[in-house]
Amino acid sequence: MEFATGIPQLLKGEVTENVGTRVDSHSLRQPLGVVAGITPFNFPAMVPMWMFPVALACGNCFVLKPSERDPSTALRMAEWLTEAGLPDGVFQVVQGDKEAVDALLHSPGDRPTKAPADKPASASTVAAAAMRRTVRTA
């Protein structure tokens, strides 16, 4: 979360003049839209907190799919974010098992997805997501 609080400095666009003969370079950073995070059971608060602060600080909405073994931690985090003034719909929690994960991964649009890839089931999740969209492993 500390990194996310300093992220505005990293989000600035850049203008570089004269990178070539009569050529200037402009970069503009824009939000991706909706980012999904699929998290394991063993660190129900820590792993999501690696994911959603950066996504939110970059102007994205975040959909968290926690492990079905510990669903209450994600709901509590959603409550805290609402109490802190985060607008409705910016942080959402989706509960369920593999079917919920598959629904997230196969929904329309390009949704960047982040999931731990240290277990065979997680590896298949990452492989399925990689076939359709951007995937980063935690």
TrEMBL record:
Domain Aldehyde dehydrogenase per the UniProt entry, residue ranges: 2-108
GO biological process, one term: thymine catabolic process
Top-level taxon in the UniProt lineage: Bacteria
Disordered as annotated region, ranges: 105-128
GO molecular function: methylmalonate-semialdehyde dehydrogenase (acylating, NAD) activity
Keywords: Oxidoreductase
Extent of Basic and acidic residues compositional bias: 108-117
Keyword Oxidoreductase part of the UniProt annotation: yes
SUPFAM superfamilies noted in UniProt: ALDH-like (SSF53720)
Residues forming coiled coils: none
EC nos: 1.2.1.27
Enzyme class: oxidoreductase
Descriptive protein name: NAD-dependent aldehyde dehydrogenase
